[in-house]
Design a protein that fits this description.
Number of strands: 8
Strand order of the largest sheet: 3-4-5-2-1-8
Distance between the termini: 18 Å
Order of helices and strands: HEEHEEEHHEEHE
Helix content: 40-55%
Shape: globular
Strand content: 15-25%
Structural class: alpha+beta
Number of helices: 5
Number of domains: 1
Length: 141
């Protein structure tokens, strides 16, 4: 489902690597599988090394797309969030890096429902960056 959504959001014009926890790294077109895997792992390493800033956006299908300062995204599927909402409510702060402070309109490390889901998406990225395992390489053609 994540592959379908990222393909849709990119208007079916992007190649991307899909990692085990759903993080998608946008690739330069035509990269070999080996180069695509290496590129995807390098992008995730760069996100962690830079700072895991996120830019979440609500999408027209009710999902949330989380972007980073490098060409990678996570999709928080609306149905997954609904199914696991209690756990998201209870554990959303687990998605913060140690000693991290995010300022929101509600205060320091205080998140509304949208923000809690964005943290879930970013947590998927953290899991993939720590143990990068390519599940699939999507080709636009």
């Amino acid at each position: 489902m994540v592959t379908d959504r990222v393909s849709y959001y990119s208007e079916r014009q992007a190649d991307f690597a899909v990692l085990k926890n759903g993080t998608c790294v946008i690739l330069d077109p035509g990269r070999s599988d080996a180069n695509a895997e290496a590129d995807a792992k390098q992008v995730l390493s760069s996100i962690l090394g830079f700072h895991p800033d996120m830019n979440p956006s609500p999408m027209d299908d009710g999902n949330i797309l989380v972007r980073y300062n490098h060409p990678a995204v996570n999709v928080v599927l609306q149905e997954v969030a609904k199914t696991h909402w209690q756990e998201i409510q209870e554990r959303h702060l687990d998605g913060l890096a140690p000693d991290e402070v995010l300022i929101t309109p509600l205060g320091q490390n205080v998140f509304d429902d949208f923000g809690k889901q964005a943290l879930l998406g970013r947590a998927y990225m953290f899991m993939d960056a720590i143990e990068p395992e390519i599940a699939n390489i999507y080709r636009r053609s």
